[in-house]
């Protein structure tokens, strides 16, 4: 049970309570939030740090998010995609922001952002979040992106970031000038603090050649909290900048930046080669019928998974290669067999637009084995040729497959683990679940518009699933006999959110 309403429990009603009892693991930087519609956009979230022992070294907690100055319900009801609304606050072709590789970021117009709940809008001098550093020592930051749509580039003026943890996994520390963070992701990093006052910057991952880049700031200081006068690191041909967690292979040469991609990260956690041959599953995130997975858009089952014989409520059409399938799409694996999940981002015309997707899996950690990226133009920095390692058997990409026939052998590969991984546009990430956790678990894009429109599936892990007690408040939810009602829709307009 992990709190997803309509799946593992009923939503907590107004005036009611629900007690979760759990073992605090894994150790690391996490966050919690509501999974009822898009309540987290209204602030129902918080940071959640798990220690294996009382921490010796003090640390700072960073929550970075985009903020739209309206309620989450307002964004949802005005959506032209889910409600055929008036598109208030939504971007059109002329004002859609794109990242450095030419990939559109979001269908929303960017408004502002917050660091630990504080930010500025229209140059107003509201107080910013501040952090008192200890100069001459390593200062630790634990950071999560708790926002909805826009990824950020994190930097601290005149300091190098040493990234040490991806969520719950210790990695071999990697130094970078800039760190990309997408919705749902968490990282720990250290800086060797200097004396003085410095800007901490969170800039939208937008191509700087397209105009002013939106930016959030916080103040780092030793004693006096005052406005810094420091400048962002300048990247030159003789002193190039390093960017960690790029969802693309590289930058335009004129920007003088080099990328560290997720498949270049090494773990410090002791693990051993997998002994059992894994099952292999292909999962494509695309816009062919709007935000979807393998040409399926998620619709909640008519009964939650704690009811008797729950899988009867997860039926989907057998063939979604030529029609719109909206249903409780479920992928089944077994507890005893490791599972390789090939997370791809294949797009075919006429819907040839892709987006980077931050994919989160409940109840598990992805082990990252390999990543594939499109080729890019070294003059413009924009993607040019899609990666062809993963292809599809049909235009809607209901059946992705490995194009070279023989799937790679990852028996001796040991990769870093995380609960959220960015799947690059026109590319893929190969992940492994070493020990699938029995139960019913959601996998979804953490970009809110994509999630709202149906870019989600349920991972069903067969095995020894603990029986979930049915409190009396749930008796009316699971009447007998259970009746199945199809949620399948084979017609309708196809809308797409970036």
Give an account of the 3D structure.
The chain has 498 residues and is mainly beta. It has 2 domains: 53-264, Immunoglobulin-like (Sandwich), CATH 2.60.40.420; 279-474, Immunoglobulin-like (Sandwich). The chain has helices spanning 72-77, 448-453, and strands at residues 28-33, 45-50, 59-67, 112-115, 130-132, 138-145, 152-156, 161-166, 169-176, 178-181, 186-192, 198-204, 215-221, 241-244, 257-260, 279-286, 292-293, 296-298, 325-327, 330-334, 339-344, 357-361, 366-372, 375-376, 383-385, 390-392, 400-402, 417-418, 420-423, 428-433, 439-445, 456-462. The strands form 8 sheets. A 7-stranded mixed beta sheet has the order 5-13-12-7-10-14-15, with no helix packed on it.
How far is it from the N-terminal to the C-terminal residue, by CA?
31 Å
Sheet with most strands: strand arrangement? 5-13-12-7-10-14-15
Q: If you compute it from the alpha carbons, what radius of gyration comes out, rounded to the nearest whole angstrom? A: 22 Å
Overall form = globular
Query: Tally the helices: what do you get?
Result: 2
What would you say the CATH architecture of the largest domain is?
A: Sandwich
Poorly predicted parts: 481-496
CATH superfamily of the largest domain: Cupredoxins -  blue copper proteins
Q: Report the top-level CATH class of the largest domain.
A: Mainly Beta
CATH topology of the largest domain: Immunoglobulin-like
InterPro entries: Cu-oxidase-like_N (IPR011707), Cu-oxidase_2nd (IPR001117), Cu-oxidase_C (IPR011706), Cu-oxidase_fam (IPR045087), Cu_oxidase_CS (IPR033138), Cu_oxidase_Cu_BS (IPR002355), Cupredoxin (IPR008972)
Domain Plastocyanin-like: 1-53, 61-222, 327-462
Pfam families: Cu-oxidase, Cu-oxidase_2, Cu-oxidase_3
Keywords: Copper, Metal-binding, Oxidoreductase
């Amino acid at each position: 049970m992990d709190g997803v309403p309509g799946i593992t429990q009923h939503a907590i009603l107004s005036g009611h309570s629900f007690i979760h009892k759990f073992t605090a693991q894994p150790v690391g930087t996490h966050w919690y939030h509501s999974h009822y519609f898009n309540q987290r956009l209204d602030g129902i979230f918080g940071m959640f740090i798990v220690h294996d022992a009382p921490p010796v070294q003090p640390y700072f907690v960073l929550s970075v998010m985009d903020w739209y100055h309206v309620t989450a319900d307002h964004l949802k009801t005005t959506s032209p995609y889910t409600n055929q609304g008036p598109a208030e606050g939504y971007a059109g072709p002329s004002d859609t922001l794109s990242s450095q590789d030419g990939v559109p970021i979001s269908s929303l117009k960017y408004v502002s952002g917050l660091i630990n709940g504080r930010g500025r809008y229209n140059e107003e001098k509201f107080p910013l979040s501040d952090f008192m550093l200890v100069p001459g020592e390593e200062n630790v930051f634990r950071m999560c992106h708790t926002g909805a749509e826009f990824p950020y580039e994190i930097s601290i003026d005149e300091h190098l970031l040493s990234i040490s943890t991806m969520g719950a996994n210790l990695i071999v520390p990697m130094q970078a000038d800039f760190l990309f963070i997408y919705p749902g992701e968490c990282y720990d990093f250290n800086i060797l603090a200097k004396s003085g006052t410095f800007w901490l910057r969170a800039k939208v991952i937008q191509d700087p050649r397209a105009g002013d880049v939106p930016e959030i700031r916080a103040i780092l200081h030793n004693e006096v909290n005052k406005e810094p006068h420091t400048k962002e690191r300048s990247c030159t041909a003789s002193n190039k900048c390093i960017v960690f967690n790029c969802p693309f292979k590289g930058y335009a040469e004129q920007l003088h930046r080099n990328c560290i991609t997720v498949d270049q990260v090494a773990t410090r956690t002791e693990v051993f080669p997998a002994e059992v041959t894994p099952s292999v599953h292909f999962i494509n995130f695309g816009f062919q019928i709007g935000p979807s997975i393998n040409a399926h858009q998620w619709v909640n089952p008519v009964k939650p998974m704690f009811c008797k014989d729950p899988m009867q409520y997860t039926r989907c059409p057998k063939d979604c290669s030529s029609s719109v399938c909206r249903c409780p799409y479920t992928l089944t694996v077994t507890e005893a067999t490791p599972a390789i999940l090939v997370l791809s981002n294949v797009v075919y015309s006429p819907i040839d637009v892709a987006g980077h997707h931050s994919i989160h899996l409940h109840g598990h950690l992805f082990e990252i084995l390999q990543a594939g990226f499109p080729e890019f133009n070294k003059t413009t920095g924009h993607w040019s040729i899609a990666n062809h390692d993963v292809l599809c058997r049909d235009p809607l990409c209901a059946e992705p497959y490995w194009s070279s026939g023989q799937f790679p052998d990852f028996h001796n590969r040991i990769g870093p683990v995380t609960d959220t991984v960015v799947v690059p546009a026109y590319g893929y990430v190969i992940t492994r679940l070493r020990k699938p956790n029995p139960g019913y678990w959601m996998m979804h894009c953490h970009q809110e518009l994509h999630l709202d429109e149906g870019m989600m599936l349920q991972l069903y892990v067969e095995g020894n699933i603990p029986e979930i007690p049915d409190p009396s408040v749930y008796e009316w939810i699971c009447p007998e006999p259970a009746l199945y009602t199809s949620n399948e829709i084979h017609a309708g307009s196809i809308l797409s959110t970036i």
